[in-house]
Amino acid sequence: MYLRAIHAELEIPLLRKFIRSNPLGILVTALESPNFPTLQCTHIPWILDIKDEESTSELGIIRGHLARANPHSKALIEASKLLSPSNGPLEKEVTIIFNGPAHSYVTPKFYVETKPETGKVVPTWNYSAAQIYGKAKIFWDTDNEETSSWLGTQIDDLTKHTESTIMNHTGGQNLPPWEVSDAPDRFIELLKKAIIGIEIVVDRLEGKYKMSQESSDGDRKGVIKGFESQGTDNGTLMAKTVEERAAMKEQKAKKGTT
């Protein structure tokens, strides 16, 4: 990930929160194979495990699952079998890309300071993203009890997380969450045989918010006003995010001078 200092998000707890709020990540692998494409990518919802939530440096372990019929799964299994007869690790690093909910083209018309003064403005695209890198273990062997146990935990944990965090089904005044136990046991066991699991020990975690921090105060205010004037949900969220990141930039600058 290209990280200009002004756009980089270096706070690990904030990046962990970003991933948990936007759990649909794109798994990217480069596995040399005579049978499958070298480069493959798949959208997968993930769950991030952290031992110490108070830690400012722990990167954790991230878990997901894929359909066994997916050619990407078949390539992962093939690569795993080269190193181990059952549920082996991968030799090469893999990557997961997470995107934030708000992103947009930014028209030069928003730059109310620089455009009328010099005209030296060009369009850009504002967005936020995080990327994870690490070594993966693949849970594919249906004859291994470890596979069934791991997949059962994975499905249950991911369901609990997404039902509460994404759907806000927390019980009480809200709707009760759907639980894996609501489905027949036999049905769940059959579905588990149709998926494989992937667990990645995170070695590197990077993130960025490209939200007009590099612009002058006048231009940034123009960007905020421009997005607000769109009258759309995305425009409102973009304006809010640009404003929030500007405030964080100012706070960091004040800390640097004290």
From TrEMBL:
Region (Disordered): 212-238
Pfam family, one: FMN_bind_2
UniProt biased composition (Basic and acidic residues): 212-222
Coiled coil ranges: none
Chain segments annotated as transmembrane: none
InterPro entries associated with the record: Split_barrel_FMN-bd, TR_PAI2-type
Protein name: Transcriptional regulator
